[in-house]
């Protein structure tokens, strides 16, 4: 029992502690106190769908189409390299760290949340493949 709970705890921490694009956006919206409920709701619903997809059979799809896992793996690696370079560039430019002052509409915040969630190849590797593989063991 502890092994299962420990695996779940460590996996959850590994996914949350690594601040990706979605987590950074959620934190920024929380600091700005702007449409936080909508952001959290979109993230929770999206994560639930992705976890269900992973546990319900994406693993079977990957086994049936082995090259799909390679596409996901290399797409995720390229995304992470791009994200790291973008983050480094932003850290080296002080003006890139200045917070926006203009309030954003709920629609634009939700659209950004959806894009950062569903267009991020990293989410498919972590949430669908990794959690799906762990759940199906």
How would you summarize what this structure contains?
With 137 residues, this protein is mainly α. The chain contains six helices and no strands.
Written overview of the protein:
14% of the residues are buried. Helix content is 82%, strand content 0%. With 137 residues, it is mostly helical.
Instruction: Output the helix-strand order.
Output: HHHHHH
- Approximately what portion of the residues adopt beta-strand conformation? under 5%
Count of alpha and pi helical runs: 6
Main sheet characteristics: none
SSE-based structural type: mainly alpha
Fraction of helical residues? over 70%
| Integer-rounded radius of gyration | 17 Å
Output mean pLDDT: 80
**Shape estimate:** globular
Jot down its keywords.
137 residues, mainly alpha, 0% strand
In terms of topology, how is this protein built?
Blueprint (H helix, E strand, L loop, with lengths): L1 H16 L3 H12 L3 H29 L1 H27 L13 H13 L2 H15 L2
Helix pairs in contact: 2-3, 3-4, 3-5, 3-6, 4-6
């Amino acid at each position: 029992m502890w092994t299962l709970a420990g695996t779940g705890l460590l996996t959850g921490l590994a996914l949350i502690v690594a601040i990706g694009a979605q987590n950074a956006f959620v934190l920024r919206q929380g600091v700005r106190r702007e449409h936080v409920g909508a952001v959290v709701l979109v993230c929770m619903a999206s994560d639930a769908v992705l976890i269900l997809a992973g546990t319900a059979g994406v693993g079977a799809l990957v086994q049936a189409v082995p090259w799909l896992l390679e596409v996901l793996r290399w797409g995720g690696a390229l995304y992470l390299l791009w994200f790291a370079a973008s983050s480094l560039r932003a850290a080296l430019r002080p003006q890139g760290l200045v917070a926006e002052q203009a309030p954003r509409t709920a629609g634009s915040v939700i659209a950004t949340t959806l894009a950062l969630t569903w267009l991020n190849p990293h989410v498919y590797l972590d949430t669908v493949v990794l959690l799906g593989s762990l759940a199906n063991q």
